């Protein structure tokens, strides 16, 4: 058993098949440039920066797998990192499921990381992996909230939305990626848990539905998700600061 487990690998699945509607018109979000380099390349490098990660599965837009493969082939990554590209689906949940199907048998720990979080530091990645390797079946990096959160009764017509509650802020966390999982647990969640509408936006939430424990480790403010145009400004500023402080390009 211990002999076998030494050969088991950690892989990262990167869902990158979204359009990026909230970012506004343009190329699919993952292919947009940050500091002159596509966001997806930053995200792959962020996963590959962890010495534990030996495989990265990129889930491309449904009709964009050849383009993404060519993009990856035009950039450099650590020699230890194997890269696979698979076409994604209509929802993030479907895209992650398609990425999981591409994993070889020798993978026992899986990270799921949004291409839209290109700047997550390697210490956060390693912290998630370490917590899974220490026995947690599901691990999420998370931060306390700055804003107070209200629960409302949403009005699809755009009218007034009455407040129905105010959860105590100190008990809330904003969760990020990479989220880390025991591979079998995540595959079970993706094959048995169903969500209506746009599907699950959070893999750990699917594992929660199985009744399995999910633990939180510290997230990082640089692991923010590029969602709206202002996030691009912040991401460029973070890259500029890194260039000054450690010569990172
Ligand atoms: N994603 C995916 N497949 C989809 C939808 C989303 O792989 N069908 C990925 C995105 O590429 C992104 C991650 O899931 O890396 C998080 O999703 P989000 O930030 O919502 O990105 P988009 O769905 O692209 O953005 P928007 O919701 O504004 O359209
Ligand atoms: Mg989305």
TrEMBL record:
Residues annotated as site: Positions MEP for the nucleophilic attack: 169, 225
InterPro entries found in the cross-reference section: IspD, IspD/TarI, IspD/TarI_cytidylyltransf_bact, ISPD_synthase_CS, Nucleotide-diphossugar_trans
EC number in record: 2.7.7.60
GO molecular function: nucleotidyltransferase activity
Reactions accelerated catalytically: 2-C-methyl-D-erythritol 4-phosphate + CTP + H(+) = 4-CDP-2-C-methyl-D-erythritol + diphosphate
Record has Nucleotidyltransferase as a keyword: yes
UniProt keyword annotations, A-Z: Isoprene biosynthesis, Nucleotidyltransferase, Transferase
Gene3D superfamilies documented for this protein: Spore Coat Polysaccharide Biosynthesis Protein SpsA, Chain A
PROSITE patterns in the cross-refs: ISPD (PS01295)
Site (Transition state stabilizer): 22, 29
One Pfam family matching this protein: IspD
Pathway field: Isoprenoid biosynthesis; isopentenyl diphosphate biosynthesis via DXP pathway; isopentenyl diphosphate from 1-deoxy-D-xylulose 5-phosphate: step 2/6
Family under the similarity heading: Belongs to the IspD/TarI cytidylyltransferase family. IspD subfamily.
NCBIfam families: ispD
Role, per record: Catalyzes the formation of 4-diphosphocytidyl-2-C-methyl-D-erythritol from CTP and 2-C-methyl-D-erythritol 4-phosphate (MEP).
The protein's name: 2-C-methyl-D-erythritol 4-phosphate cytidylyltransferase
Source species: Streptomyces olivaceiscleroticus
């Amino acid at each position: 058993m211990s002999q076998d487990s030494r050969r088991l690998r950690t892989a990262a699945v990167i869902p990158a098949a979204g359009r990026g509607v909230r970012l506004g018109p343009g190329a699919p979000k993952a292919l947009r440039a940050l500091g002159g380099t596509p966001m997806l390349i930053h995200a792959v490098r962020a996963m590959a920066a962890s010495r534990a990660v030996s495989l990265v599965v990129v889930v491309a837009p449904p009709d964009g797998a050849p383009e993404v493969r060519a993009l990856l082939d035009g950039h450099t990554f650590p020699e230890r990192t194997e890269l696979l590209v698979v076409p994604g689906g209509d929802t993030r949940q479907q895209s992650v499921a398609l990425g999981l199907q591409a994993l070889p048998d020798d993978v026992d720990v899986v990270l799921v990381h949004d291409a839209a979080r290109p700047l997550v530091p390697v210490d956060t990645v390693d912290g998630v992996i370490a917590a899974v390797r220490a026995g947690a079946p599901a691990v999420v990096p998370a931060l306390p909230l700055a804003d107070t959160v209200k629960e409302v009764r949403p009005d699809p017509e755009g009218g007034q939305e009455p407040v129905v509650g105010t959860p105590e802020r100190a008990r809330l966390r904003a969760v990020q990626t990479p989220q880390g999982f025991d591979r079998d647990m995540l595959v079970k969640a993706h094959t048995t848990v169903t969500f209506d509408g746009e599907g699950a936006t959070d893999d750990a939430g699917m594992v929660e539905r199985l009744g399995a424990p999910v633990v939180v480790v510290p997230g990082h403010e640089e692991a923010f998700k590029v969602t709206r145009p202002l996030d691009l400004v912040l991401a460029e500023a973070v890259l500029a600061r890194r260039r000054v402080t450690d010569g990172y390009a």
